[in-house]
Amino acid sequence: MSGPSAPSSFALRAGAARSTAARYGRRGLALLRRTPFPRPTARGWTVIAVGIGLVGGGLVGTTSVAVSAGLLLLVLVVLGIVMAFVVAAPLRGSRGTARAIVQVGEVYRERITLRGTSLPIGPRSTLLVREQLDDGLASVSSAETYAAVGPNVPPAVLDVEALAMHRGRSLVGPVTIRVEDPFGLLRIDRPVVAAEEVVVVPATTPLGAIETGALAGAVSADEGRVGQGGSADDSELRPYRPGDPIRRVHWAQSARRGELHVRQTTQAQPPEAVIALDVRRESYQRLGRDDLAELSDLGGDAAFEHAVVVAASVARALAARTSRVLLVSDGPAGSTRHAGDAGGLTDVLVGLADVRVRSDAREVTEVLPDVRGRDVHGMTAVVTGHCTAEQAAELVSATTGSSRGILATIVPPDPVVRGILDRAGWRTLVVPVAGAHAPGSLR
Predict the structure, then answer these.
(1) Which position has the higher pLDDT, 429 or 377?
(2) Which of 149, 103, 146 is nearest to 128 (CA)?
(3) Confidence (pLDDT) at 33
(4) Residue 226: pLDDT above 50?
(5) By C-alpha distance, which of 353, 351, 388, 165 is closest to 274?
(6) Please, how many CA atoms are within 13 Å of residue 398, restricted to the half-sphere of its CB?
(7) Burial of 25 (0-12, 13-18, 19+ CB in 10 A)
(8) H helix or E strand, kind and range, residue 12
(9) Is the pTM of this model over 0.85?
(10) How many other CB atoms are found less than 10 A from the CB of residue 339?
(11) Half-sphere exposure (CA, 13 Å, Cβ side) for 266?
(12) DSSP category for residue 435
């Protein structure tokens, strides 16, 4: 008894052809689904209206010439639809950028690459490629160009440069292409590259005084308090207490002893720093016209923006002398916002890009206890618009664990405030808004 006969070569070729056709069919349907249907142009609507009128009039008047002419115009529209789809559907694009985080005043650069069909045959077309930018970015170079696509045509390239104008999160894109049929009857506007987010972080202002005065004094005091000598191996274990940083837990010894133990080192270490940004609107509305000159605004928004710049400048200066910088501010619904990373400033700057001034925000002295003693040790830098004597006293009492710190203000504080902070070992840094009458000072 003979076994089943092997399939013929014709059947194998037919199966392969069906598989290939099905694969390309699915690909084509996917391209059509994400390609918008062509919209008639003004010329297209005219041709459609004339074609329908000729067909209708020819049928009523039994005039075959009119019917044929109308059908020819309608066929021309259908042919335009097909050709527009053939050009627009296979198009694909990509966006290449060096970085997605830029500073206010810097130029954001990207390159858009557009590729057409990979088939050896097909129509060639010239289409409009356009990148969309929101209000936070101002175009430096042209954000649109005409590009040729088709078989054996190199990929089209659009280089976009935009100036970062305002801090926050801005959108670039989507990249859209506009395809018209050869007769100018129909148009397809199709997105080929999805929109992406660009984070614009605050700029910096010169803080030469903080480098030589306040920063050196505050940090060196913390280093002397944290490290009392000893070698790099000089450390001991003690039972875990609520508030101890998790990173100090000695997991091997904790497992051996049956309870959590933490390392208590005595070697000198670079301190960590907390930057507390005051986001209360009233702290920036109290600034008078003499303090801010033409920048005095009733809402305090312009003054707050300068305070954000000061916070970014202080963060960059502290990062060079501390092991970690942590940003703290009052978030919505009474939550404390934390942003910080070891060995870098990315999280802090992104946090400053998102922070907003609010009328219902808590005072800095209510926010600091949520972080001080739990995640960070070292110094404190408070950035605000104006500080009263009562607020200075509360600030000193709220940061007794770190007797050294910096108060960075936009306007010079009262002598009483300076005295309270001086007795507590704090430094006062005044960074006035550009154009203000009162010069900055440091003690």
Answers:
(1) 429
(2) 146
(3) 62
(4) no
(5) 351
(6) 20
(7) exposed
(8) helix 9-33
(9) no
(10) 22
(11) 10
(12) T
According to DSSP, residue 324 is labeled E
Cβ contacts of 141 within 8 Å, gap of 6 or more: 159, 160, 161
Read off the amino acid at residue 206.
P
State the DSSP code for 106.
S
Reading phi first (left if > 0) and then psi (alpha if -120 to 50, else beta), residue 317 is in alpha
CA nearest 113: which of 91, 90, 88, 139?
A: 91
pLDDT at 28: 58
Q: Are 243 and 376 in contact (CB under 8 A)?
A: no
Quote the CA–CA distance of 337 and 327 in Å, as a whole number.
8
Contact criterion met (CB below 8 Å) for 228 and 267: no
Contact 353, 199 (CB under 8 A): yes
| Integer angstrom CA distances of residue 53 from 39, 63, 146, 322 | 20, 12, 36, 80
Estimate to the nearest angstrom the gap between the alpha carbon of 89 and the chain centroid. 31
What is the reported pLDDT for 115? 83
pLDDT at 364 (0 to 100): 83
What tokens were used for 372?
């001080």
pLDDT tens string 105-127: 889 999 988 887 666 666 777 88
Instruction: Render the burial of 408-426: b for 16+ CB within 10 Å, e for the rest.
Output: bbbbbbeeebbebbeebeb
The model's pLDDT over 13-37, given as tens digits with 9 standing for 90+, comes to: 666 667 766 665 665 565 556 667 7
